[in-house]
Write a structure and sequence with these properties.
Elements: E1 2-5, E2 17-21, E3 27-28, H1 30-35, E4 49-53, E5 62-70, E6 78-89, E7 100-104, E8 111-114
Antiparallel strand pairs: 1-3, 1-5, 2-4, 5-6, 6-7, 6-8
């Protein structure tokens, strides 16, 4: 198996964001990862991770959360969950004047990027 470790210390702040696995252990089969891209497995293996942000002024606009990979035979030992928030000003009828509402970006998917 390839285990995905969400507990590693983060280099960037993720204030206002929650990242947690939908099941534990958080893992994919190593064979599926190795075979990704072949005719037998054209779709990448996946596992479910919940990612959401709270509506608060100190919530980070950008989440770049490192996920360490354990049991991988490649140079890539981390992938990143990248998400952005879009802030929009709301009217005083909906919220106190001068505050912003925070909503997730238009793409509900999680973008996983490989570490360099």
């Amino acid at each position: 198996y390839v285990d995905l470790d969400l507990s590693e210390p983060q280099e960037t702040s993720h204030t206002g964001w929650t990242i947690k696995p939908r099941k534990e252990p958080l893992r994919i089969r190593k064979r599926d990862a190795d075979m990704f891209g072949s005719d037998d497995l054209p779709i990448p293996p996946s596992c479910l991770i919940t990612v959401f942000a709270v509506q608060a002024q100190d919530t980070e606009d950008h989440l770049s959360y490192a996920v360490s990979l354990k049991g991988v035979d490649s140079d890539a030992k981390k992938i990143y969950i990248d998400r952005f928030l879009e802030k929009e000003t709301v009217s005083s009828n909906e919220f106190d004047a001068g505050h912003s509402a925070i909503k997730p970006d238009a793409n509900p998917g999680i973008n996983l990027t490989q570490a360099d």
